Amino acid sequence: MYISSATIDKLPTICNSFAMVLTTPLAERTLEIARQRGIARAQDFRAAGIPPAYLTRLAKQGRLVRLGRGLYQLADFPGSNADHDLAEAARVIPHGVVSLISALRLHGLTTQLPGSVWMTLAHKARAPKSTPFRVEIVWASGEVFSSGTAVVRIEGVDVPAYSAAKTVADCFKHRRRVGLNVAVEALRDALKDRKATRAAIWHYARICRVQNIMRPYLEALA
Predict the structure, then answer these.
(1) Is residue 79 part of a domain?
(2) Mean pLDDT by 10 residues, the chain (222 residues)
(3) What's the CA gap between 138 and 118, in Å, rounded?
(4) Do 34 and 115 belong together in one domain?
(5) Which residues contact 83 (CB under 8 A, 6 or more apart)?
(6) Is the separation of the CB atoms in 159 and 96 below 8 Å?
(7) Does 164 lie in the same domain as 92?
(8) pTM of the complete model
């Protein structure tokens, strides 16, 4: 392979330019945003005045990982948590709440391995047209959507998710989608493992309007 003398003369400059990406304040700022956000969106970097080229170069250098379209994470993080997809979902669908099967797994109330991320969106909210993972969407309104939410920290990302008690009630409400057996198992385990009280479960059963459906199961587990 022939390399011209002109190209050889330019090698120090090329190498120095490559090294600058590793050490410039803008590159460090890029990495700091990714560190702060856990999983950062392209728009987070744009808002900070960071050109897209920096994301590409840092990804090529192995300092950033491109998780999917417009999603970036520090190389130290990807795949480090079993609930990684939930952290991604919280960035892709920031107005959603992790729910149903995904929330059950988060709370240790199911043995199922969900093939999708389950999320609840407010009534009339738009679901994303495409995501880097499979998503099951449920819509809710009023208290059914807003009550019982908590924030779980996953890989540096604040992930909104329903509490154990609210999730149990939601499973009975959407029993045709998740299966009645899954809902009953979640109720039994939530009480047995003391992850939710009867009072809290009944509170959300009222909000979800599934008291009559849940009453015989609660009485049987008394």
Answers:
(1) no
(2) 47 45 69 74 79 78 71 64 79 93 91 83 87 88 96 89 98 96 95 95 97 96 84
(3) 8
(4) no
(5) 105, 106, 152, 154, 159
(6) no
(7) yes
(8) 0.68
